[in-house]
From TrEMBL:
This is Putative glycerol kinase 5. GO terms for biological process: glycerol metabolic process; glycerol-3-phosphate biosynthetic process; triglyceride metabolic process. GO terms for cellular component: mitochondrion. It holds the Pfam family FGGY_N. It comes from the Eukaryota. Keywords: Kinase, Transferase. The keyword Kinase applies. Residues 72-167 form the Carbohydrate kinase FGGY N-terminal domain.
Amino acid sequence: VPRLEGSDGACELDPEAVWESFCKLLDEVLQGNTNAFVDNHVDAEINPDRINCIACFTENLLIDECRKGLLCYGCLETWLLWRLTGGKTFATDVSCASVTGMYDSFSRKWSRPILASLGIPANILPGVYPSSYYYGTVQNGPLGYSSNPSLSIPITGIIGDAQAATLTENCLSPCQAKLTLGTGIFLNLLSGSKALAVMNGFYPVIGWASGHPYFDCISTFYMGSTSSSSESPSSVPSTSRSFHLGDLTYLVEGFYPHAGTLIDWLQSENIFCTYSELEEMLYSGDRLGLDEKATRENIFYIPLPRNTLKHHQNTLIGGPLKLNKNSFYGPDGFVIGLDYSKSADKLLVARIFIESIAFCTKFMLENCRKQTRISPSILYVNGNVARSNWLLQRISNVIGIPVERRGLEECSCMGAAIVAGVGAGLWPSFSAATEAVHKRLQSEANSLPSVDINNTDLNNSKKLNSHKLYRRFMPESSEICISIKKRYHIWSHIRASYLRKK
């Protein structure tokens, strides 16, 4: 998707190009291309700083248009919904709104104090509705060309990607936890029907909710609005519309931006060529006893926040690894303990980078436990990085509980389908939907032989049947776990010392 770049360095995705890419993807799917997918991360959330910058750089020229209702601002899904419905629906759902920084998850309303402090008019933001809800019918795009109105396709669900993945993992009860290892690390823990006040890197979000309007919206295709907001693109739908939230579920969410980016960086530095080679390198390190060597020589990869890392870049002792110029630094941290006068051991470099993902997971989980007193008994994982058996075993060893990789490749897509299915009345509840999905997965898994994905190139992992990826990782022997936890404690102390030095 083309980017719009300003002279000040700011950049945005071209919204029309996003729409065209979305329509192209739908076309490919309709033509039977089942391998059509978009796997690039897009910042889809409303960003309050972005709105504020727009207002500042235009010297408030847009304020009058905001007040007149001629300007609207929303999430990526708001834009796609707007285009799909022909400009008739300007809305988002509670899950997407709750991660914007401007929505009060406790009162379930846009936060007036935050909006006032940022100078953002409330009337430019979308109406907020349940995840499973009738949002209108498709009027535009490849699915909107039906000449018969009765055949129009209803839009019955919207949900954030991290929440959708949590729902797919069948995490429906308090204290259950899901970890997504993709470009970054998303940790979600269920807190039940009430939001928890958390800080220090965690925040309460709404996972999902179903809506039950007073009208039979699926059979009548009626939005249930008593105003003209659904007909006028310049109007904001009222959030006091006649519906109540069912299955309202809150999560505690923590995020770290680097997981897959570490692996991409290692590949760009020619540490490995294929993902199967990387996995073999990690297991080779086990056989060579590299954990003992790394602990003995205090060899670690230390990730730090961007500003802290920048502060230390001119004060760190030692030269770069002899891989590429300035490869001493990773995308979010630096290596300590290696002999920089010699060529770096690629097995060791790969190991400490991938190990840092497990340590970041442990750090996030411990922090969340302290704040919420939520202690999950099992951690469900998904995402492309979660295909590494070595990494998941290391996570299990360091956190001390089972780690389970379910049999679904595209958890966010399945979660969105579940939400839409509940909104369309295919299932009476989220629990009924996830139960049906997992029963089918289990049936398929029992009927087919398993495969060892360690011997499969993960570049071609999309071709694998998802049910063949299922595996539960249990903590290994106490001796191994003690050794890994010892490394974690050293790593966390070193990291804390650099955080204090900024």
